[in-house]
Design brief:
mainly alpha; 3 helical TM bundles of succinate and fumarate reductases; transmembrane
Amino acid sequence: MSQKRHIEPLLWSLFGAGGTTIALFFPAMILVVLLSSLGVIPAEALSYERMSGFFLNNIIGQLALLVVLVPSYWACIHRIYHGSHDLGMHPGVAVKALCYGGTLVLSIATVVAVLF
């Protein structure tokens, strides 16, 4: 019996976190934009200056931005990679390393860009 360790459970957990994030936050974001366009929420509440101030100059906003973006990257790349199997393409280990490595680099770049 092989004791070989796999990284696949970690990747599936990141996919699950991203899927949960997308399912919880994106409908709320769509609702806020819809309510703003209907006039229920004043348009100045979602102005560029106000939103960028909240998301880039406030630690709560920065953490919220990271919680929404970074797990979403992992869910998307995992869906794309495994979706390619459903389409009959079977990328090798090099493509898998490139996909997930690129997502790791993008995640780190996002953290650096938002927090520093």
